[in-house]
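Narrative of activities, Objective 1.

The group set out to show that a structural description can be obtained from nothing but a protein's sequence at a throughput compatible with the screening campaign. Below is one input-output pair from the validation batch, recorded exactly as produced.
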Amino acid sequence: HRSHIDYLLLSYVLYHNGLTPPHIAAGRNLNLPVIGPILRRAGAFFMRRSFQGDQLYKEVFDEYLHQMFVRGFSVEYFIEGGRSRTGRTLRPKTGMLSMTVKSFQKDATKPIAFLPVYFGYERVLEGATYMAELSGKDKKTESAFDVLGVFSLFKHAFGAVTVNFGEPVLLKEFLDENLNHWASPEKVTSAALAKTCGILALRLATSINTAVAIKSTNLVALALLSTTR
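Output recorded for this entry:
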């Protein structure tokens, strides 16, 4: 997850290929005045970064996600949790994956497949902001004015962008191989579930990187990062 453009780009690609755009898990920091309602109508649903300390919020969100799955809606989320400032893939998190697995344990009548998606940019809109953060400045909170400021960036060249799809991971087959008695939640310990979700997260992150699009900009960046001086 490297840019706010990621989810806009995926919805665009799917729509123009005759597919229904997904529902998108978004941080509540994007629930801004004017912008928030537009994003919600475009399929976004907003969530906190952490559910700790509020069991009711977690239960309601679990059920919301479960209802989308059992009704057959596709859902898009980023297992890294946030945008990478360096372009390197962040260590995956398991929160949304765990909720997806628990939903499937409750009702497995509709199959679930994870489809890894790789977004390849030569330059991202947030480049200047990322450089500032990497040099020590605090992360700036998003605002509606930032969205308007994006239009001034369109006069610059941003190179080519690629959207690649990896091999899907079928959840039932994965659980059959990695989690005993998964269809009986009462027999699965929280430790076993956490371990399995960790394996799934690593597999998906690897699948995303396997679908990488290698461009000249990527090769130059790799050469610079691998050079001592």
